């Protein structure tokens, strides 16, 4: 329970840095996706989903924990709704696949897993959210995500390096088969 609370708090703390809105989509760049990727890579699927769900639940009851002081209701009403919803499957995929590469946690596989769950999975939900919440075409919604890829790749590298260190120091943090 303490790990879940700490990682929910980490995601909230990463929102304090604020956000930058780029492109036509109106979706902000935040550090909170780093927290989501890190949560899955360190805690695994079960505890990672619980931590992200706690964080989202807190925002839905009105706490301004999203970057820029937004609440979950505000985010769900805007173009970033799909990205917020995508955090749950993203952390699930990262956590599930990370458990399969432990106890060694090879860095290259960690990078691929974190990029797949933290970028591909979340972006799929984000694009769907853009299509539902804006008047963007499919092509425009997909191409609007390109501006976020460089920053998200940096987040993937940071999360992978941290996860590798954590798994080396605390090898049983994720239950493996």
Written overview of the protein:
This protein has 177 residues and is an all-alpha fold. It has one domain (2-169): Arp2/3 complex 21 kDa subunit ARPC3. The protein is 69% helix and 2% strand. A two-stranded antiparallel sheet has the order 1-2. A hairpin with a 6-residue loop joins strand 1 (20-21) and strand 2. Helix 2 crosses helix 4 (81-101).
**Average pLDDT over all residues:** 91
Number of helices: 7
Low-confidence stretches: none
Query: Structural class from helices and strands?
Result: mainly alpha
Features:
mainly alpha; single chain; Arp2/3 complex 21 kDa subunit ARPC3; two-stranded antiparallel ribbon
Which helices and strands, and how do they pair?
Blueprint: H1 2-14, E1 20-21, E2 28-29, H2 32-60, H3 72-76, H4 81-101, H5 107-133, H6 138-144, H7 149-169
Antiparallel strand pairs: 1-2
Helix pairs in contact: 1-2, 2-4, 2-5, 2-7, 4-5, 5-7
Brief summary:
The chain contains seven helices and two strands; from the N terminus they run H-E-E-H-H-H-H-H-H. By secondary structure, the chain is mostly helical. Helix 2 packs across helix 5 (107-133).
């Amino acid at each position: 329970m303490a790990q879940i609370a700490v990682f929910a708090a980490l995601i909230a703390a990463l929102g304090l840095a604020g956000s930058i809105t780029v492109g036509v989509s109106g979706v902000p760049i935040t550090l909170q996706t780093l927290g989501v990727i890190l949560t899955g890579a360190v805690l695994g699927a079960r505890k990672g989903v619980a931590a992200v769900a706690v964080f989202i639940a807190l925002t839905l009851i009105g706490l301004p924990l999203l970057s820029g002081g937004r609440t979950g209701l505000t985010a769900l009403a805007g173009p970033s709704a799909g990205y917020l919803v995508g955090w749950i499957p993203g952390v699930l995929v990262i956590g599930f696949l990370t458990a399969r590469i432990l106890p060694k946690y090879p860095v290259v596989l960690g990078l691929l897993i974190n990029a797949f769950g933290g970028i591909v999975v979340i972006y799929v939900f984000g694009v769907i959210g853009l299509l539902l919440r804006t008047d963007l075409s499919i092509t425009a919604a997909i191409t609007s995500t390109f501006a976020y890829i460089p920053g998200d790749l940096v987040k993937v590298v940071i999360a992978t390096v941290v996860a590798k260190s954590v798994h080396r120091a605390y090898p049983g943090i994720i239950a493996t088969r």
